[in-house]
Amino acid sequence: MSDRPKASAPKTPVSAAPARKAATAGAPAAKSGTGSWLAGFITRAAAGIVYAVVFILCLVLGIVPTAIFVSVMSGLCCYEFFRMTRLDGKMANERMGIAAAVLFPLSALGDSMLLNALLFALMLAVGIWYVWSPRTRISDVAVTLMGPIYTGFMLSAIVLLRDAVPGFAGALLSVGVCASLWVSDSFAYIVGSRIGKHKMVPKISPKKSWEGFAGGILGSVLIWLILWATHFYKLSLPYALLCGVVVSILGVIGDLIESRIKRGVGVKDSGNLIPGHGGMLDRSDSLIFGCITAQLLLMIGGVL
Fold first, then answer.
1. Long-range pairs for 159-163 at CB < 8 Å and ≥24 separation?
2. In angstroms, rounded to a whole number, what is the distance separating the alpha carbons of residues 172 and 179?
3. pTM of the prediction?
4. Which of 138, 197, 235, 244 could staple 224 via S-S, CB 3.0–4.6 A?
5. Would you state the pLDDT for residue 19?
């Protein structure tokens, strides 16, 4: 037996091993993370562009395509609303509610009396359902009524707005109102993500900041200034500025209302219909309150 010591492999320093492993694993991980973010951004952008193009195309083509598109949009929004409230234990009459949500924008094609008649019919039908269904709770009735009114009735303002001014001027006004809310959302996101420090309502929407809120108002005002500059409408400069500010604020309130609903039932998105955006209600939350606000302001100001 030899007394010579056995040769052993050189030991790697303890501190170097983890560092080398981290360096080896870090590069692919970073590359993968960047690729994943880019793919997600492209998907989100593509879906948003398709949604906007179809929406704008319907507004440009006229009142009937607009009513059909808004009707479909309202039905989807109402379905997602009922889906969320079901998670909270509310058992709405979904068929009745979704049917009303779909019919509200279509009824806006005719006389305004049709909207009132449909609202009356919805209240009557839900009341009769409550009387003849002993197991139905008053909370189920409230949700059944809120669904179609919150979606279809409120979004009918887009149809009424498109119908108020004929021709190209009407199409431009409708697109402008919706664009002011879309641009407001985009400006709020850009400004808030870069310099946002003061949170608005962190318990409901943690990413919203007062800086982003101000940026959103600026974006909305820019679109309303473009509408004023066309001189197609009886829209004064001060009133255009007022509309830009108020419409943006009501759009944010609509966003917060939907965020409160989602927070209450414990979901991140209302659905997964639009890749990268969530559900149709997620895309329409600011339009629900912003468009009807614009319509009322334009009527009060004598523009419509």
1. 159/63, 159/66, 159/67, 159/70, 159/105, 159/108, 159/109, 160/108, 160/112, 160/295, 161/291, 161/294, 161/295, 161/298, 161/304, 162/59, 162/62, 162/63, 162/66, 163/63, 163/108, 163/109
2. 10
3. 0.84
4. 244
5. 43
pLDDT at 83: 95
Packing angle, helices 237-265 and 63-87, rounded to 10: 30
In tens, the pLDDT along 250-260 reads 999 999 999 99
Give the number of other CB atoms < 10 A from CB of residue 286.
28
Q: What angle do CA 75, 64, 233 make, to 5 degrees?
A: 110
**Are 225 and 205 contacting, i.e. CB atoms less than 8 angstroms apart?**
no
Give the integer Cα–Cα distance in Å for 193 and 185. Answer: 12
Between CA 287 and CA 177 the distance in angstroms is: 9
Q: Do 198 and 209 form a contact (C-beta atoms < 8 A)? A: yes
Q: What Cα–Cα distance (Å) separates residue 260 from each residue in 74, 204, 205, 253?
A: 19, 6, 8, 10
Using CA atoms, how far apart are residues 266 and 251, in angstroms rounded to an integer? 23
* 11: Cβ contacts below 8 Å, ≥ 6 apart: none
Which H or E run contains 267?
none
